Amino acid sequence: MIGRAVSFFRRLPLSGRIGLCLFVGWLLIALVGPQLAPYSVGAFVDREVFGPVSQRFWLGSDYLGRDVLSRVLWGSRYTVFLALFAAFLAVFIGTSIALIAVIRGGWVDEVLSRAMDTLISIPSKILALVLVAAFGSAVGLLLVIVALTYIPGNFRISRALAMNIAAMDYVQVARLRGEGSVQIALREVLPNMIHPLLTDLGLRFVFIVLLLSGLSFLGLGVQPPNADLGSLVRENLSGLSEGAPAVLAPALAIATLTVGVNLLIDSLRGNDAR
Amino acid sequence: MNNPLVEVSGLTITVPQRAGGERAIVDDVAFAVRRGEVLALIGESGSGKTTIALSLMGYTRFGSRLAKGAIRIGEARIDALGQDELRTLRGRRISYIAQSAASAFNPSRRIMAQVIEPLTVHDLATREDAEARAIELFHALSLPDPDTIGYRYPHQVSGGQLQRLMAAMALITDPELVILDEPTTALDVTTQVGVLNAFKAAIAGRGATAIYVSHDLAVVAQIADRIAVLRGGKVVEEGPAGEILENPTQDYTRTLLAAATPTDRTPAPAAAQAPVLSVSGITAGYGKIRDGRPAIPVLHDVSFDLPAGAALGVIGESGSGKSTLARVIAGLIPPAAGTVQLGGEPLPPALKSRNRDQLRRVQLVFQNADTALNPSHTVGETLARPLAFYHGMNGTQAKARVAELLDLIRLPRDLASRRSGALSGGQKQRVNLARALAADPQVLLCDEVTSALDTIVGEAIMSLIDDLRRDLNIATIFISHDISAVRAFCDRLLVLYAGTGVEQADRASFAEEIHQPYTRLLLSSVPEMDRGWLERTRAGAAPALPGAVPRPGLCPFLPRCPVAIAGACDVEPAPLRTARGQAIACHHDLAALRLQGQAAAEATGI
């Protein structure tokens, strides 16, 4: 297992290695960061607002005098896990529907594809905004809404992939053998889609991080006193003119997370092509 | 001119390897071609023949590079030229005819514009002159409607015509050297004869020097003056064509020659067994079925019986419906009319209504093992699935059976843990076959199972299937476009033309001279390993353009038939003439057909 991980790392180009390190780093921070946080997330600990970087506050303090490092550590948990779960959910549901559409074919495919086309025709950010406005922004609800936004895109990609694979002779062989639809989908088609699907998963993850940050920036995402990286940027925006680390740190966090995942995905795609 | 036109020495082309370092795919190759001579490069896939041919144009495929050696054509040192100088040579002094003309022509431009492109690109002629020259070439290549064919689009002409048009494109600049890369491999045999004739005449008529790349010794025998046999990037043997074909000095050349001329197998004991598969009156095709006829009919009223353990060869050119027949039997295409009986019981037409046992007893082996094996499964998983599905075998029992199956197809047992991507073409086809055998079928449908393989590998696969069918008593149907490849392995043959069975015969009577005219054309189109066959055969004389049959139900071969009887063949359907072991649909009676066959044999001197 460790050997395989090492050889996988070795095969990546430099950009991929950087991406992998950034992504794994953020995953670890999201997992154990809150335990390492020096202060509690809502505690007002600094008399100063927008305090500079100091021995007590490594990343300074925010507009209410809270420790920015602690808030970023907590915030990354929301952003990373929300985005990860939402991306998995979107890809899982999108791919399942795509497999049903392809294996069943005929009117089932027609109905599902047109339904997804309808969803695609609504701009995803507006859809998310409307849904949040209508149903509120509890974390569970946010997860479902964000996943729903990205299901149609994944459906399109996985349907195209599955269509190509379903036309292969080995799928015909399975049909001739008398295999059922579920067996054909899971045994013959799905294993050959895994690589591009992982790439898609990574892309969706990045989009979702940005969408969540955007929603939070508009005040529709994770609600105070909790905060994800996006809302940290928003609430400290007034510190931007003075170059306070309170606004720069979470912005930098979003940037490194998305750039890292992007680098990783791109290098994986390169591996496939070779 | 004693100095040869082409001189290649010490040619080495390498590809980088994963582990570092380089591997030579062409290794220290040397040959020379004199002016007006045709040199054939013969070899199996991977022998480096195309790589060598391309290097003569100063081109190496992506990733490979010319490591050593000198290539001289005329005064030009190809290996030392830059891209710009090469560009002035290509298409002008050296031209190339690729295997697949269909993918070499741009489908959205008219043929004429593409044929004269080598002239217009190099500014060698005005458009009018170029077109006049093209039309001249169309005449020389015996294309139909030579004056107007250039104004059609590529999809409006047949495959054989497109291949000739590509030759016109290559010859239009009067190049000193023409490189032909498997130019007839993708064609049907009856088409191939005409194309070969046209090539030979055009090359000889212009005094051009040619390099002919092929895997088919019999084709090369017709056209080459010298032959170089390649294996693994090395020249095994080189010499005048006659010498190589008659007195090869190397074992490898002898193996190639032997594989190209399959020896007759001893026929199976003629036991009067009840037919295990009985097909009667199958009409099938694509699209909606109305009044028992599909919108696009492919098969018309095809019938045959297949005794247990026997082998039937279904022969036909592309588009004759032979693969459709296999799909109808397998249940992939429900027929519009007719029945398929398995062991005396009718098989439901559609796959969905067949039960698991019926599915198990009929197994289809696909043509292309590359796409028929799931790349994400190991060989063991691929073989274990039918065992679990049909026989409920799991765990150690299944493992033991997988090992047995691998023994049966003569592959090492440790291959079970490999994925199919790590296998060679022949190994893949064996696994493909083993998967069908895992079901313990009674009927095995082999759809062109050797057409994607090299001659030697294909011959081994055919022998393997032949042995297995005798040992396991599996009735086998070989579907093929290549009558010479399957003929030796079959007890009976069924010849399909345009979806109609025109002749059925057992092996003994098929060897005689009584044949339906189409079958005779097919037989006389198979090139023989004999120089001068091309001149003797009369197959090229038949019109290659299949016109439309005036009325459905008439003999489909009528528009091409050299012996059609006016007032009979174009009026009513051909009656079935039967004699011992033979059934022929023709208006001529058997005596007349025998006379025609004898006359043809005498004319060709066979």
Description of the molecule:
The complex is a heterodimer of chains A (274) and B (606). Helix content of chain A is 74%, strand content 0%. Chain A is an all-alpha fold and 274 residues long. Chain A has one domain: MetI-like (MetI-like fold, Orthogonal Bundle), CATH 1.10.3720.10. In chain A, helix 3 packs parallel to helix 6 and helix 10 (229-235) packs antiparallel against helix 11 (245-273). Chain B has 606 residues and is an alpha/beta fold. Chain B has 3 domains: 6-260, P-loop containing nucleotide triphosphate hydrolases (Rossmann fold, 3-Layer(aba) Sandwich), CATH 3.40.50; 275-501, Rossmann fold; 517-604, no CATH class. Chain B is 35% helix and 24% strand. Chain B has 23 helices and 22 strands. Chain B has an 8-stranded mixed beta sheet, with helices on both faces. A 6-stranded mixed beta sheet of chain B has the order 6-7-8-3-9-10, with helices on both faces. In chain B, strands 2-1-4-5 form a 4-stranded antiparallel beta sheet, with helices on one face. In chain B, strand 7, helix 8 (189-206) and strand 8 form a beta-alpha-beta unit. The longest helix of chain B has 18 residues, at 189-206. Chain B is globular, with a radius of gyration of 26 Å. The two termini of chain B are 38 Å apart. The relative contact order of chain B is 0.09. The A-B interface holds A 168-170, 172-173, 175-179, 187-188, 191-192, 194 and B 330-332, 351, 354, 356, 359, 363-364, 366, 368, 371-377, 385-386, 389-390, 435, 439.
